[in-house]
Amino acid sequence: MSDPTHHPEPAHPIPVQWPRITLAWLDGLVGGRAELLALRDEDPPPMFQALADEAEGLAFDALADEVDRAAELLQDAEVADALDRAMATFWFLRPAGLRVSGGDRSRDLAGGLVWVVGKANGVFDARRRQTDLQRALGLRRPLRGPGAGVARVVGRARPVVAPRPAGAPDLMGFGRSSLLTPTTRRVVIAWRDRALEALEVPW
Fold first, then answer.
1. What pLDDT, in 10s, does the model give residues 5-57?
2. How many Cα atoms within 13 Å fall on the side-chain side of residue 128?
3. CA–CA distance from 37 to each of 177, 184, 186, 192 (Å)?
4. Out of the domains of life, which is the source (predicted)?
5. Distance (Å) of CA 6 to CA 3, 72, 183, 191
6. Average pLDDT of 60-86?
7. Cα dihedral angle (188, 48, 139, 184), rounded to 10 degrees?
């Protein structure tokens, strides 16, 4: 992600609608206005659920191995932590989905988690291309394919379509703040605070 801490200021004078457009876009990233106002840059605690039996444990271990391999390819500690949280969220919300894990299914799920976390944090660029990660993970189809299925569990099946303000980073809105890295959350907080400040400016 190219300098994610950089958040360009809007043009001056700020258009009257800019704060509301910006806040609607930010709402979609984290899951709503209450979540946006409460957002801090600390990692949230992961969801947790005990593994039901040995079969589920083996399936979870297989998925975790694939996710760890993806994290090594991305070479970003914050993204690796976000992947672990996304995996835990998937496990918590759809434990039955792990029972069919193993082999191609584990790789597909890992690829889907990479796509969701990558798009939520603007990870993909010329250096970290989706097609390269797809090949490195041994997937037969683009990351977006399994990513759509994962998104239905850990966020939204269809990303939020609120327009992205000019100059804002290319982040996809899955409506769950736990998918965001601390760096991305700081960017969201900066845009939030700027938009809230602009709302108080008399027009």
1. 444 554 444 667 889 999 999 999 998 999 999 998 877 766 666 666 677 77
2. 19
3. 12, 15, 13, 8
4. Bacteria
5. 6, 26, 10, 10
6. 91
7. 10
Q: In whole angstroms, give the CA distance from residue 178 to residue 83.
A: 10
Query: Helix-strand-coil percent breakdown of the chain, rounded to 5?
Result: 60, 0, 40
Two tokens at 115?
């796509």
For 122-142, what is each residue's pLDDT tens digit?
999 988 999 999 999 899 899
Residue 77: both structure tokens together = 């500690």
Query: Could you identify the residue written with the tokens 């939030």?
Result: 192
E-assigned strands of the chain? none
Phi, psi of 10 (to 5 degrees): -65, 165
